[in-house]
Amino acid sequence: MFPYIKIIFFLVLCSLLVSCGFKDIDKRSFVVTIGIDKPENKEEGYDISLKIALPSSDPKTQGEEFIIHTETARTVSEAVRLIKAKSGNELDFGHMKMIVFGEKLLQEDITQIMDWFTRRRDIQKIAFVGSGKPTAKAILELKPKGERLPSNKLFLFFGETGTESPYVTTNYLFHFYRNLMDRGIDPYLPIIETKNEEFEITTMSVLKNGKNAIVLDKEETKTFNVLNREYDKVNLKIEQENIYFMLSVDSISAEYTIVETKNIPYIEYDVNIKGIIEESLQQLDNTKIDEYSKMVEDVFTTEIQNLLEKFQEKSVDPMGFGLRYRATHNGTEEAKWKKWQSIYPALQFRVKVQTDIKSTGIIE
Amino acid sequence: MNRYFHYLVILNMLANVVALVPKVLIEHRLNGVVVSIFIGVALSLLFFYVFANSMFKFPGKGEPEIIKAYTPKWFASSYLFIIGIFYFIAAGIILLTFIDITLRFINPDMSSLYTAFLFLSIVCAGALMKTEKTLYALEIILVISLPLILGIFLKSLFNPYLSWDSMKVIVQHSFDSISIESVGAASYSFVGFYYLAIYNRLFTEKVKPIKIRYILLIGIVGTVNIFTSLMIPIGYNGVDGIGDFNYPWFSTADAIRMEFGFIERVLFIFLLLYIGISIISATISSHTGLEIIKSVLPSFKWKNRELMPIIVILLFSMVTILAQYYLPQGKLYEFTKIFFIGLLGVGMFKTFLMIWIVRRAKK
């Protein structure tokens, strides 16, 4: 009797192997990018566009085809349900690596729409986020030259496996959501534009209370990335009378402390740059290298100072000074947060840049 | 010392992620959680020292034999019965949580009964094995998953998107009101030594008593472990945002990106590793519970086969499946908190009991 028990148990276990939970790969549509826009003539709701990659069965021609479905609904899930009815396949969000918010959507609080992205289990928290100009759909529809897989170019831009540029601001969904929720730090989004059938990602916007508060230009974006992520693949331009050279940065470190004095509190920002000169329009003199360092320091100090003051003026805080204040002071969170809000507008910035130019390159 | 003893201690440090410990600690993140953790660590190290050393004084004997030999019969049977149930509850919490995680992250289309059946069949079959064999299973699983889990922990630490400022906010609240729930939750990471209650039967050689040095080492490893399981989710999801997450560590694993790993999303590797850890943890707990309860229940034989363990295990499975329906995630969480506090009480009682027994044994 008992030996059979094992066999029966085994057979019962085999019955668990019926796979009705999973759908085959050819019955799935892989969404690679989602775009969210504000509908043009409606007050409420969203235009949801899904970019679905069409796989090709021929391995030589990779599937570069895609379709875009757009639906308008009050919530994201309703729109996704409607698109499901259109596509005929099960929508699979497991490969969705890019989320694009339309520029107009960012004029209102987007905290609400983030709920869907954080609640769904199959949305990657490491998906890239960005804001699409003029609309998210335009970004989805663009098919740049040389793109071998749908949306792959965007992934290469942001993933840092392809291009590495100080103008491209990478932000992940989890990071964006964290900064949106935490008091004392404001989230930012790279702005993706289309120009001549190509992407242009050189600027960024900072959000305040879930709304677009300030748009940075190219150079400010660069400075922000250098400060925020200690991004060292960057060139600094030094332009003065009868001298014009580019410094290629090898390493950079940026640290700050909030100093509270009786009169005016200030933030001490220490930036250390090491680099070599990459290109110059004039003959450079190796003995004058200290002078050149001084020039770099002056230029970069004003750039940083201007950027930080611009943030302060619009009372946005993408650097997380507020969070740092909360992290270094005692008291209840409410009291600290209130105190910080009164401190921030009056804050002074003391930026100190130290530059070490290691050489003038291979030639003088 | 036997290497299997280390495995038992490490097991709970890994399993705490599934056992809702991070969630309890995170709920109290602005309530003096740091000091609570240190109190929990100190208390459990004391329990550890006393319990493990007293067990090692009786080589080759499990707790049921020791208790039965030195205490009156009514006390021994009721005490062992309650302790046995505690082990089953520990196994049940891990199982129920992981069933829920499976449904949420792996396959939401699967019915919960089906998932429960799948996990229970493995755990029950494991619990009915010989004590020795469960240890071998534990060794295999730990050897495979421990390096990878450590790798994920390290990878998560060296991420430029990790916010250290969010974590420092927690430290600012170190000395606020201390909660007993977080003390209990912190002590969960250390309770692996309780498995000695049964596994001491295998350690037949006389070993030297544990040195304070070893206890300190365990303390340091455990403290690092608890702070990892509390702080890293906060660093990834923010001090204000983390409160919304049901399974902080799984959401955190999803925020880690390995461009050149086997799979870009670390979540799936993490889930895979934790299936193993939670199943072996539930198996070891329920095996210990089974052996303890078996020692107080009368034996029930049919054709020379012992049926009592099977009846107990079936009962456990039924309770787990019923708990699936009557103990949804929110209630299970509340229940787990009570369990953590109970764990402290049991630890206290056990410590005094063991001291008393060791004294009697000397006479």
From TrEMBL, chain A:
Localization in the cell: Membrane
Matching Pfam families: Spore_GerAC (PF05504), Spore_GerAC_N (PF25198)
Membrane topology type: Lipid-anchor
Keywords: Germination, Lipoprotein, Membrane, Palmitate, Signal
Gene Ontology cellular component list: membrane
Chief location category: membrane
InterPro entries: GerAC_N, Spore_GerAC-like, Spore_GerAC-like_C, Spore_GerAC_C_sf
GO-annotated biological processes: spore germination
Domain Spore germination protein N-terminal: 23-193
Limits of the Spore germination GerAC-like C-terminal domain: 204-361
Keyword Oxidoreductase on entry: no
NCBIfam families: spore_ger_x_C
Family in the record: Belongs to the GerABKC lipoprotein family.
Name used for this protein in its record: Spore germination protein KC
From TrEMBL, chain B:
Source superkingdom: Bacteria
Keyword annotations: Membrane, Transmembrane, Transmembrane helix
GO cellular component: membrane
TM ranges: 7-26, 32-53, 74-99, 111-129, 136-158, 178-202, 214-236, 266-286, 307-326, 338-358
InterPro entries, A to Z: Spore_GerAB (IPR004761)
Entry annotated with the keyword Iron: no
Keyword match Membrane: yes
GO biological process: spore germination
Official protein name in the record: Spore germination protein
